[in-house]
Design brief:
The complex is a heterodimer of chains A (340) and B (156). Chain A is of the alpha/beta class and 340 residues long. Chain A is built from seven helices and 27 strands. The chains are: A alpha/beta (340), B alpha/beta (156).
């Protein structure tokens, strides 16, 4: 389906790359360096695009923004494991990623679009795509790359008409455009999402309204958002700001405080405290536990201050939440929201 | 995992802390050193229980628990540690944490064991606290006993 931007009447396509692991070192201020034996880190790689943050993943949020912009259905491709740049180099070897990228460009060109928005989801920013588009057209640019305070952001806009009837790989055409690219300087909010602490900071910034990331749900009390079907026992205390995701259950006598988030389909069992922490989707947290300064994902807990990751084989502590058929609040013994 | 640090480890400096005490009047309680291994689960927990029963010969033991080597500790290990604390409490003992790894600290925080540890009395005032100090590196002599970490009393 062709995309048409209502403001400029330009047909736009989009290719989204899911960023792999960054090769940057762990430069957190935490007291110990952290990395798994295979060099990866907690919440790194393509999971950054699919992990839900305040009720929706970065990928889905990006697609929603593109829909507002009026782009055609985007092509989504996983990044190369060693890639660090948005635009593939002219001399890049024929890898599965390069093949997928070339195929995606061909697909977008086949849709007849005039511009292609190239995006790589690995960091978060509040870029106004309309503003970028207007700049690109105003400058009569053939390639516009977005730059943030720390360097190039993973967003570029390229003239797709240059690809029509191309004789050879599209990446070679891109390579010829790079020296004459226009730079769009973006001075808004950026979160690199390089490490778990960045994720936590993004969640806090979203809850406190310091960036454009908004909770997906209903604000049931000032600063407290619930997703669809979230259930909180009346004996539990939820301190604002907080987010309880769709389908999640907070059992009796729990405390959620310190700008904590409980994402979709989680279960927090009786008497547990969640403070300054994020519980990722589908996680079970056991009875009478203290989760502090942590991100918890299924069977893994990452402590943000100690910079340490712990795996759990014992599901009584932390594990995958079971899918539970939603009952009415009265049937479940949940009598509404108690928040402060 | 468990060793008793008897008065022979107290040096002259520590003896001076008890200035004024007549010879023979001074009672120096034994300190029990509990060093948990890198992986502390069900098997290690049972071993700890057996070793502690042998060491708790007298009332009011002073126990130093060193968790600095612990990289993995599951619920069985936490339960084992709790049993250890129960034994100390039964004997009206005192507890000091000699060292704790980030992994162990996180697990104890998660399971609210931190609060229980804090409820134990500190070592008696007349008892020097122990800091773990590695022995100086010496030439290896196969005839010598295996090297152990010798605790030294911290300054009062």
């Amino acid at each position: 389906m062709r995309g048409l931007n209502a403001g400029t009447k330009v047909q736009i396509g989009a290719i989204i790359t899911l960023a792999g692991d960054r090769l940057a070192e762990d430069s957190s201020a935490a007291p110990r360096r952290y990395a798994r034996k295979d060099g990866t880190r907690f919440l790194s790689g393509p999971s950054r695009a699919s992990v839900e943050i305040l009720g929706q993943s970065l990928l889905k949020r990006t697609i929603a923004k593109l829909r507002e912009l009026g782009t055609a259905q985007p092509d989504i491709i996983p990044d190369s494991p060693v890639s660090t740049a948005l635009l593939p180099s002219r001399s890049a070897k024929a890898t599965p990623f390069i093949a997928a990228w070339e195929s995606a460009v061909a697909n977008q060109v086949g849709l007849g679009v005039e511009l292609i928005l190239l995006l790589r989801i690995g960091s978060y920013f509040d870029l106004d795509y309309d503003e970028l588009l207007r700049f690109h057209l105003q400058e009569r640019s053939r390639l516009t790359q977005v730059y943030g305070p720390s360097g190039a952001l993973d967003v570029a806009l390229v003239d797709a008409t240059l690809f029509r009837g191309a004789d050879g790989p599209y990446r070679k055409i891109i390579a010829t455009l790079i020296p004459e690219q226009h730079r769009f300087f973006y001075r808004g909010y950026v979160n690199p999402l390089n490490k778990a602490q960045d994720y936590r900071r993004l969640v806090e910034d979203g809850l406190y309204g310091r960036c454009g990331l908004r909770p997906v749900g209903k604000e049931v009390a000032p600063g407290v958002w619930h997703g669809t079907g979230a259930q909180v026992d009346s004996s539990s205390r939820i301190s604002a700001p907080a987010f309880i995701g769709a389908g999640s259950r907070i059992a009796e006598c729990c405390v959620v405080s310190g700008a904590s988030t409980i994402e979709r389909d989680c279960e927090i069992d009786c008497g547990t405290l969640v403070d300054q922490s994020c519980i990722l989707q589908g996680t079970y947290v056991g009875v009478a536990l203290d989760v502090r300064h942590s991100i918890v994902d299924n069977q893994t807990l990452f402590h943000l201050e100690r910079n340490v990751e712990i795996g759990f084989a014992d599901k009584r502590l932390i594990g995958r939440a079971k899918a539970v058929a939603l009952k009415t609040p009265a049937e479940s013994g949940f009598h509404g929201v108690s928040s402060s | 995992m468990v060793e008793t640090v008897r008065d022979k480890y107290l040096d002259f400096k520590s003896a001076r802390l008890f200035a004024g005490a007549k010879e023979g009047e001074m009672e120096i309680a034994s300190t029990i050193m509990v060093k948990l291994p890198e992986v502390f689960g069900k098997k290690e927990s049972r071993k700890l229980r057996r070793e502690l029963k042998q060491q708790f010969a007298s009332n009011r033991p002073c126990v130093v628990v060193d968790l600095s080597r612990v990289k993995e500790i599951d619920l069985a290990g936490v339960e084992g540690l709790l049993n250890c604390l129960q034994e100390i409490a039964k004997q009206d003992g005192a507890l000091q944490i000699g060292g704790i790894s980030a992994e162990a600290a996180t697990m104890l925080e998660l399971t609210r064991m931190e609060g229980i540890l804090q409820k134990f009395p500190a070592f008696p005032a007349e008892m020097p606290s122990f800091a773990l100090v590695p022995e100086p590196v010496a030439e290896v002599d196969e005839s010598e006993a295996p090297r152990t970490v010798q605790p030294q009393p911290a300054a009062a």
